[in-house]
C-alpha cells in the first residue's frame, strides 16, 4: 500500500468559489468528526480530585476538545476531508450531468395511432 498523497484537484467545470465552498464544508465535517472523537477521548480521562472535576471543567474540556479538533482539521487533519471533498465533487458532477431525454416506446406510440 502506498502512502503517496494526491491532493484534490479542482475540476475544470467547477468555479473557484464552488470548489472553495466544497473544500470548506469538507474540512468542517472532518472537524465535527474529530470533535466527537476528542470529546469521547477526554470523557475517559480521569481528573485530579484536588483541582479537577465539576461543571466548569466539563464545560472547558468540551471547548478545548472543539478547538483541538478545529486546529487538527484546519492543518490537514487525518485525511478525511480530502475523501469527503472527492465524494462531494463526484456527487455535484453527477447532479450536473445532462439527463437523456425520455424516448417514447415505438410500440406504444404506433399502437396509439392504430386504435
- Sheet/helix structural class: mainly alpha
Helical proportion, percent range: 55-70%
Total helix count? 4
Terminal residue distance: 65 Å
State the shape. elongated
Domain Flagellar protein FlgJ N-terminal: 40-86
Protein name: Rod binding protein
Pfam families: Rod-binding (PF10135)
Report on the architecture of this protein.
The protein has helices spanning 16-43, 54-74, 80-96, 106-114. The protein has a domain at 25-37 and 52-96. The mean pLDDT is 79. It is built from four helices and no strands. Helix 1 packs antiparallel against helix 2 and helix 1 (16-43) crosses helix 3. The chain is mostly helical and 115 residues long. InterPro entries: Flagellar_prot_FlgJ_N.
Amino acid at each position: 500500500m502506498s502512502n503517496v498523497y494526491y491532493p484534490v484537484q479542482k475540476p475544470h467545470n467547477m468555479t473557484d468559489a464552488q470548489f472553495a465552498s466544497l473544500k470548506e464544508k469538507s474540512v468542517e465535517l472532518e472537524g465535527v468528526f474529530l470533535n466527537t472523537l476528542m470529546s469521547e477521548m477526554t470523557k475517559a480521562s480521569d481528573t485530579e480530585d484536588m483541582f479537577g472535576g465539576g461543571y466548569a471543567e466539563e464545560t472547558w474540556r468540551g471547548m478545548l476538545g472543539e478547538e483541538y479538533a478545529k486546529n487538527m482539521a484546519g492543518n490537514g487533519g487525518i485525511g478525511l476531508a480530502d475523501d469527503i471533498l472527492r465524494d462531494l465533487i463526484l456527487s455535484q458532477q453527477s447532479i450536473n450531468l445532462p439527463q437523456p431525454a425520455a424516448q417514447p416506446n415505438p410500440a406504444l406510440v404506433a399502437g396509439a395511432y392504430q386504435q
